[in-house]
């Protein structure tokens, strides 16, 4: 059964999408969906994970999307963990719901960006004859994206280093694009110098504590900290530290800050590169297969900043590096959004 082909006319598209749980998967998807919407009339069916970030943000930024919530959980490591039996059964049990929604929505294609919700959506799409496109943000691809790559029309990767992590037979369908960046108009007004500290969409207790120490030691510098909801001792906050639970308009901050201290999630790294932000990146050591360390090395190669491993990130060392970056200054610039290249390629493939 083929649902997608000729489902829409040349000026409109129906897109089913999945990818979220964390901002690192969600924002690149929004960037691509918004690039489509800038060119054509689009309707979007978004598969969300119950209770996760996409359920909170999509109703705010895209109330027009049709949303379907799935009750799924990621698989635990190691893969033969006994609790995974239930988790796999739960993923499988969603197949009927996903298929029913795809059948009534009749998408032209499915666009997924990884995370454990992407696989069942991509698989159901494939079984219904809907073309699948997948985007991988990290240098080391997630297991579900590798599985999806076997039947995806195109596999969009951010970094050349990813290619060898995919099976040889799919490599002719890989396109290196960079990570799509979610941007809108706007820039916040900040005093200079301001340093943004952000531990990814879920925050980082380590960076929260570091922010507090740095702000106390460096009264001549302003700090903005996104805690991502992680705990922080707010009893004695220095005046030069502004604390936010979550920042909804990161693009406006990236355009304004002098420097940043971040984890090394692939989307954050790509945003630093896109907005040319000097930064110290401290990878989260718990990331699957150490992928944040590899992301951080790629960032270092750009010459924009430095990776410091968490075990080495004393306040003294970070302060020293930060002063060095601030002294060096920032060139305010923006690159072309990789979302454009992805949309060009998908339109080319589906119009064949
Ligand atoms: C714990 C976990 O699963 N981490 C992964 C997840 O991280 P995580 O979701 O933290 O991913 P990233 O750090 O790459 O991206 C975070 C995104 O959230 C945004 N943001 C962050 C804070 C805030 O207050 N407001 C805001 O909008 C950032 O601008 C960025 O767009 O996805 C990344 C991309 O696949 C992976 O590399 C990470 O290893």
From TrEMBL:
<keyword id="KW-0472">Membrane</keyword>
<dbReference type="GO" id="GO:0005975">
    <property type="term" value="P:carbohydrate metabolic process"/>
</dbReference>
<feature type="binding site">
    <location>
        <position position="201"/>
    </location>
    <ligand>
        <name>UDP-N-acetyl-alpha-D-glucosamine</name>
    </ligand>
</feature>
<keyword id="KW-0573">Peptidoglycan synthesis</keyword>
<dbReference type="GO" id="GO:0050511">
    <property type="term" value="F:undecaprenyldiphospho-muramoylpentapeptide beta-N-acetylglucosaminyltransferase activity"/>
</dbReference>
<keyword id="KW-0997">Cell inner membrane</keyword>
<feature type="domain" description="Glycosyltransferase family 28 N-terminal">
    <location>
        <begin position="18"/>
        <end position="156"/>
    </location>
</feature>
<comment type="function">
    <text>Cell wall formation. Catalyzes the transfer of a GlcNAc subunit on undecaprenyl-pyrophosphoryl-MurNAc-pentapeptide (lipid intermediate I) to form undecaprenyl-pyrophosphoryl-MurNAc-(pentapeptide)GlcNAc (lipid intermediate II).</text>
</comment>
<feature type="binding site">
    <location>
        <position position="138"/>
    </location>
    <ligand>
        <name>UDP-N-acetyl-alpha-D-glucosamine</name>
    </ligand>
</feature>
<dbReference type="GO" id="GO:0009252">
    <property type="term" value="P:peptidoglycan biosynthetic process"/>
</dbReference>
<keyword id="KW-0961">Cell wall biogenesis/degradation</keyword>
<keyword id="KW-0131">Cell cycle</keyword>
<dbReference type="GO" id="GO:0008360">
    <property type="term" value="P:regulation of cell shape"/>
</dbReference>
<keyword id="KW-0328">Glycosyltransferase</keyword>
<keyword id="KW-0133">Cell shape</keyword>
<feature type="binding site">
    <location>
        <position position="292"/>
    </location>
    <ligand>
        <name>UDP-N-acetyl-alpha-D-glucosamine</name>
    </ligand>
</feature>
<keyword id="KW-0808">Transferase</keyword>
<comment type="similarity">
    <text>Belongs to the glycosyltransferase 28 family. MurG subfamily.</text>
</comment>
<dbReference type="InterPro" id="IPR007235">
    <property type="entry name" value="Glyco_trans_28_C"/>
</dbReference>
<keyword id="KW-0132">Cell division</keyword>
<dbReference type="InterPro" id="IPR006009">
    <property type="entry name" value="GlcNAc_MurG"/>
</dbReference>
<dbReference type="Pfam" id="PF03033">
    <property type="entry name" value="Glyco_transf_28"/>
</dbReference>
<dbReference type="InterPro" id="IPR004276">
    <property type="entry name" value="GlycoTrans_28_N"/>
</dbReference>
<feature type="domain" description="Glycosyl transferase family 28 C-terminal">
    <location>
        <begin position="194"/>
        <end position="337"/>
    </location>
</feature>
<dbReference type="GO" id="GO:0005886">
    <property type="term" value="C:plasma membrane"/>
</dbReference>
<dbReference type="Pfam" id="PF04101">
    <property type="entry name" value="Glyco_tran_28_C"/>
</dbReference>
<dbReference type="GO" id="GO:0051991">
    <property type="term" value="F:UDP-N-acetyl-D-glucosamine:N-acetylmuramoyl-L-alanyl-D-glutamyl-meso-2,6-diaminopimelyl-D-alanyl-D-alanine-diphosphoundecaprenol 4-beta-N-acetylglucosaminlytransferase activity"/>
</dbReference>
<comment type="pathway">
    <text>Cell wall biogenesis; peptidoglycan biosynthesis.</text>
</comment>
<protein>
    <recommendedName>
        <fullName>UDP-N-acetylglucosamine--N-acetylmuramyl-(pentapeptide) pyrophosphoryl-undecaprenol N-acetylglucosamine transferase</fullName>
        <ecNumber>2.4.1.227</ecNumber>
    </recommendedName>
</protein>
<dbReference type="GO" id="GO:0051301">
    <property type="term" value="P:cell division"/>
</dbReference>
<keyword id="KW-1003">Cell membrane</keyword>
<dbReference type="GO" id="GO:0071555">
    <property type="term" value="P:cell wall organization"/>
</dbReference>
<feature type="binding site">
    <location>
        <position position="247"/>
    </location>
    <ligand>
        <name>UDP-N-acetyl-alpha-D-glucosamine</name>
    </ligand>
</feature>
<feature type="binding site">
    <location>
        <begin position="22"/>
        <end position="24"/>
    </location>
    <ligand>
        <name>UDP-N-acetyl-alpha-D-glucosamine</name>
    </ligand>
</feature>
């Amino acid at each position: 059964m083929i649902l997608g082909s000729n489902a829409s006319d040349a000026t409109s598209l129906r897109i089913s999408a999945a990818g979220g749980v964390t901002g690192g998967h969600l924002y690149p998807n929004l960037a691509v969906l918004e690039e489509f919407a800038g060119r054509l009339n689009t309707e979007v069916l978004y598969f969300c994970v119950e209770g996760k970030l996409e359920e909170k943000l999509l109703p705010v930024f895209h109330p027009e999307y049709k949303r379907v919530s799935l009750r799924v959980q990621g698989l635990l490591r190691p893969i033969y963990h006994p609790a995974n039996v239930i988790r796999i059964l739960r993923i499988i049990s969603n197949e009927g719901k996903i298929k029913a929604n795809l059948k009534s929505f009749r998408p032209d294609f499915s666009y997924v960006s990884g995370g454990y919700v992407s696989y069942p959506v991509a698989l159901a799409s494939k079984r219904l004859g809907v073309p699948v496109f997948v985007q991988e943000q990290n240098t080391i691809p997630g297991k579900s994206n590798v599985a999806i790559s076997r039947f995806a029309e195109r596999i969009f990767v951010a970094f050349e280093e990813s290619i060898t992590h995919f099976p040889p037979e799919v490599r002719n369908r890989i396109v290196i694009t960079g990570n799509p960046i979610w941007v809108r108009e706007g820039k916040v007004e900040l005093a200079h110098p301001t340093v943004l500290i952000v531990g990814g969409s879920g925050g980082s207790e380590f960076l929260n504590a570091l922010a507090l120490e740095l702000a106390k030691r460096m009264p001549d510098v302003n700090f903005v900290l996104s805690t991502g909801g992680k705990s922080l001792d707010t009893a004695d906050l220095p005046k030069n530290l502004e604390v936010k639970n979550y920042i909804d308009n990161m693009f406006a901050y990236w355009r304004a800050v002098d420097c940043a201290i971040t984890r090394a999630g692939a989307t954050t790294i790509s945003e630093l590169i896109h907005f040319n932000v000097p930064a110290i990146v401290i990878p989260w050591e718990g990331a699957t297969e150490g992928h944040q360390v590899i992301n951080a090395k790629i960032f270092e190669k750009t010459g924009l900043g430095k990776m410091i491993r968490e075990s080495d990130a004393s306040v003294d060392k970070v302060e020293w590096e930060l002063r060095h970056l601030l002294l060096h200054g920032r060139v305010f610039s923006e690159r072309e959004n990789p979302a454009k290249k992805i949309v060009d390629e998908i339109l080319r493939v589906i119009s064949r």
